[in-house]
Specification:
single chain, eight-stranded mixed sheet, alpha/beta, Rossmann fold, disordered N terminus, 11 helices, 21% strand, globular
Length: 314
């Protein structure tokens, strides 16, 4: 029997609806809850945004995590790497976990935080770290830990080498890049790496150390550096070399690397450990599958760091 025009339209509409229903993605399943999530840890601590003034007059923003109840003696200062800040990466998860175990934890901006032109000097970070530690001491914390992430490891090691701060009880180095000139040379080759240094030296010799240069950082993109800033990181008289600075560190040291970190060379951790000749204890931990920023491995990192601190710096 011949179908009417209306019947044909209904059949076509039904077929189209079935096709759409078959192709429509199923709703995502609920992800499993993480046993040590930052949200759970946050319940055991208070959060306060703070501003810390350095000795040379720079105001730094930060976030203070404190354990509920009476403050103890122990505290951790979190020092970010290149382009980072006090709230990025795993800092909130580690700080909340630390606070839930009785540590105060201050995540503090360095003066060259985030993106944008870099015009300071690497050595200026000594004043930044000193200000953060001094702030923690004013709160009654006398056993202090420095934790540096990526280039923050270089900042931390320089501070300790220069200050010999007696209030420090331990040092944690996470995803350290090693020598910054060597890192650049691995990305582009020795000659291009040296060429950028030579350009900065020429500007310095011409009396223009603050002139900005567009610097290629390979996997990190491009950034504006003043000639002064570039030379302070990887010039011939730079003081950022972690292998020489770590020789003067006298606290226990934990070095943490991820096996899936594509930004740094795997041998950096072993080189740092071998150079730490003044430390009473140096441990190197490699976390399987973790990348440079420990994305999705924040809880594992926090657990390993805090377990080590409990043993090495109780």
């Amino acid at each position: 029997m011949a179908k009417t025009r209306t019947e044909r339209l209904l059949i076509c509409a039904a077929s189209l609806w079935l096709a759409i229903a078959a192709a429509w993605p199923a709703p995502p399943s609920r992800p499993p809850s993480r046993p040590s999530s930052p949200t759970a840890a946050a319940a055991a601590c208070s959060l306060e945004q703070v501003a810390v003034l350095t000795g040379d007059g720079v105001l730094l923003d930060g976030l203070l995590y404190r354990a509920a109840g009476k403050a103890g003696a122990k505290a951790i200062l979190l020092v970010h790497g290149f382009g980072g800040n006090f709230y990025s990466g795993y800092f909130p998860a580690v700080a909340q976990s630390a606070a839930s175990r009785g540590y105060a934890c201050l995540a503090l901006n360095m003066r060259d935080h985030d993106s944008g032109p870099k015009v300071s000097d690497f050595t200026d970070n000594q004043a930044d770290i000193a200000a953060g530690l001094a702030y923690l001491r004013t709160l009654g914390h006398s056993r202090l830990v420095l934790l540096g992430q990526s280039m923050g490891t270089n900042r931390v090691l320089y501070y300790e080498a220069q200050s010999a701060d007696p209030s420090l009880s331990a040092t944690v180095l996470v995803s350290g890049p090693g020598n910054l000139f060597e890192w650049n040379a691995r990305q582009f080759g020795q000659k291009p790496a040296q060429a950028s240094v030579d350009d900065a030296l020429a500007l310095e010799a011409a009396g223009r150390p603050e002139q900005l240069m567009l610097v290629d950082l390979g996997p990190l993109g491009k950034a504006l550096y003043s000639a002064r800033y570039l030379l302070s990181l990887r010039g011939p008289t730079a003081r950022s070399d972690p292998y020489s600075n770590i020789q003067k560190v006298t606290t226990p040291i934990l070095i943490v690397q991820g096996t899936a970190d594509r930004l740094i060379e795997p041998e950096v951790g072993a080189r740092l450990k071998g150079a730490a000749t003044s430390s009473p204890r140096v441990d190197l931990v490699r976390l399987e599958g973790a990348d440079h920023s420990f994305a999705k491995e924040e809880a594992t990192l926090a657990h390993r760091v805090l377990a080590w601190l409990k043993e090495a710096a109780p």
